[in-house]
Design goal:
Blueprint (H helix, E strand, L loop, with lengths): L1 H11 L10 E3 L17 E3 L4 E4 L2 E5 L5 E6 L15 E7 L3 E7 L10 E3 L1 E4 L17 H14 L5 H19 L21
Antiparallel strand pairs: 1-9, 2-7, 3-9, 4-5, 4-8, 6-7
Helix pairs in contact: 1-2, 2-3
Length: 197
């Protein structure tokens, strides 16, 4: 498991890549965190696997209708906001956890409604044999573990196994950064447009 987790860590931190598999929603995730508004409360624990969020915090009723939206800002920006402005921000760090802070105390009418926001999660590490990685190509883990074993044994196939692992990692990044089948990633071509139009 130590070698498998080392491979997951390599994947998670590869080339500053934001992996699609690690984007999730606060209500969908089951790793802790508070997901309901409590009257008078402005601080809520984020999920245990929270890494960073962006966009909006939505307060939704039982039918899924948005009742309130809080734009997410960086914590240092709050000093430039009015006291009665509506916004949210996260404080904390990976070792002790994160806290969602809402500015403008939620009104009594929102009590019991769900807190919904999208965020980038830390990957699942293996703790038992029934854990599953979010990774698109888990064979990267196999190749990376094999390379580590070959290296420790001074096996001449170490280089081949390491190459297979790195090729799998690069292929995952290529697919990840290529958009979806219906919406491929591409840079807009403005070469034919006039300047300033």
């Amino acid at each position: 498991m130590r070698l498998a987790n080392e491979a997951i860590n390599r994947w998670a931190n590869y080339d500053n890549t934001y992996w699609r598999e690690l984007f999730t929603t606060s209500l969908v995730n089951s790793t802790g965190g508070e997901v309901e508004i409590v009257t008078g409360t402005t601080q809520y624990a984020a999920p245990d696997d929270f890494q960073e969020a962006g966009g909006y915090i939505r307060i939704v009723d039982a039918n899924g209708n948005i009742q309130e939206r809080y734009p997410i800002i960086d914590p240092h920006e709050r000093q430039f906001k009015a006291d009665l402005a509506t916004y949210g921000y996260f404080t904390g760090n990976p070792s002790t956890g994160y806290t969602l802070n809402l500015n403008r105390t939620p009104s009594d009418s929102l009590n019991g409604m769900s807190i919904l926001y999208d965020y980038y999660a830390t990957p699942t590490m293996f703790e038992s044999d029934d854990d599953v990685s979010e990774m698109a190509d888990p064979y990267f883990i196999v190749h990376r573990m094999l390379a580590s074993q070959f290296r420790a044994a001074r096996n001449p196939y170490y280089t081949s196994a390491k190459t297979d692992a790195e090729n799998a990692l690069r292929q995952m990044q290529l697919v990840n950064n290529s958009g979806t089948w219906a919406n491929p990633w591409e840079m807009p071509d403005n070469s034919g447009s006039a300047w300033g139009l």
